[in-house]
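Progress against Task 2.4 (sequence-to-structure conversion) is shown through the following example record, which the project officer requested during the mid-term review.
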Amino acid sequence: MAIVGIDLGTTNSLVCVFKDGKSTLIPNSIGEFLTPSCVGFDDDGEKILVGQIAKDRLISHPELTVASFKRFMGTDVKIQLAGREFTAPELSSFVIRQLKDDAEAYLGEEVTEAVISVPAYFDDNGRNATKLAGELAGLTVERIINEPSAAALAYRENYDEDATFLVVDLGGGTLDVSVVDAFDNIIEIVAVSGDNHLGGDDFNIAIADYFCKENGLVVSELSAETKAIILKQAEMCKIALNSSEPVLMYANIDGKECSVTLTNKKLVEVSASLFRRIEIPIGRALRDANLTVKDLDYVVLVGGSSKMHSVQKYIESLIGVEMKADIDPDRVVGIGAGVVSGIKARNEEIKDTILTDICPFTLGTNIINRAKNEDPLFSPIIERNTTLPASKMGTYYTVSDNQDKMVFKIYQGENMYCRDNLFLGEISIDVPKKKAAEECCEVRFSYDINGILEVDVKCVSTGETKSTLILNKNIKLTEEEIAAKRKTLDNLKILPRDEEVNKVVLARAERLFAEAFAETRDIIGNNISRFLEILATQNDRKIRCARKDFTRLLDVIENREDSFDVFMREFEFRDDDEEDYE
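Structure tokens generated for the chain above:
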């Protein structure tokens, strides 16, 4: 039974295993390492579609498909999909279940446990929601690792020299910044900061809004399918700007030909507020670490959105040190999570590596606000960026005569008032009745590397002690509740791996059909029909050849190669068994 590492991303997810002395990426059923974090239903509403097939149906079937649900992890938001209601952990569990199936097919053995990465700035709710997603997928999840920490671990495998560096992790939906000190076999996370609502999706939206504004389109009046087409085009233009400029963003909207020209300069202009938000957590992380940019040896770029040319130039202008992206930013967190799975399995080749992580948020309790009793103040006990595991104590006194009980409400956050922080739970204890301030309790917080907070309260005069594990009741379910929910979700069957390969090609074709118009749309439609006819023959060899041909056709259409017109005149499916490409 194997332990794997999972990078559960906003845009893409992947799974790794520590094997033969290294973290090894595991391919999915279509041979790709990155599995889009998209979930949908098939046309009959009976089978769950996960990954590329769901992503391609975001445009053609927006009411049956959903993405970017990671942004709602740890909240009580309900997401509507195909007439059903799901939470973010439930949708994420489908992605994890798909990754689990891929890993088992690759390894030839059962996968029972996973280390899952989370944004460093995820609060307790987000972390518990991630654990729940893994449990709903049938995995034991004892270890959660911060994404920048995983990236640092992956880089440490490549660079042995001592170094202090910054990890900037800009993904599809979140930004994490970590200051890392690496020496000997120790990787120490010194400080973290971030923005849980800033990522590549926001740049897509900024480009799409600019496109609509320039073409006189009112976003609120557009259909879900049209919005999906515009966002897809925005994403493609954003990516194209990494290699050339200017680029033309073009779409046919309800028969109207709409276009806009984009450069990196224009991208920075229309996304100015997003770029300013990148600077804030970088500055905060360096201040918390008591460092300046001059103390950094280099910056490690992580996350698909860090590939953006404009983002790299912006960060380089802020910090002025070497940028490293030697390991694919899309894969580095997953590779690091795979290393942690090896450490957890006590693999002989990696077990001596030590990774010290930190508490990303301050943990504390309520104290009286004498100016306004009903609005208590926040008293920190474990400060943010404290190395884990940590155990800290505070002493608190009674505030009124004849007080017979002290109630400690536990919060997570950085704000002065309790109401502005995240409530985690509470614990109370009886105290002897005396004058105010004559009785006191010692409150100890113990926070481990897996994000579990234990609170011990001791009445000093009586010696009575009470303890509790603080777990968010809205996120943490009992074993019975998890089993019941798993049974419900298991009834929604994920598309079998052997069916998925052909379905992915069809979903891509349907997406391109929705994006195209005129002659190109006719060509795609006719070839979809032809491909379906070949699938109906159930001749595996013919299907393999046809799938290869159809994929080539779709590549030409999507990339609009110079030879497009010539290729289209010559293209046809082969009906014989002349060559098996795969």
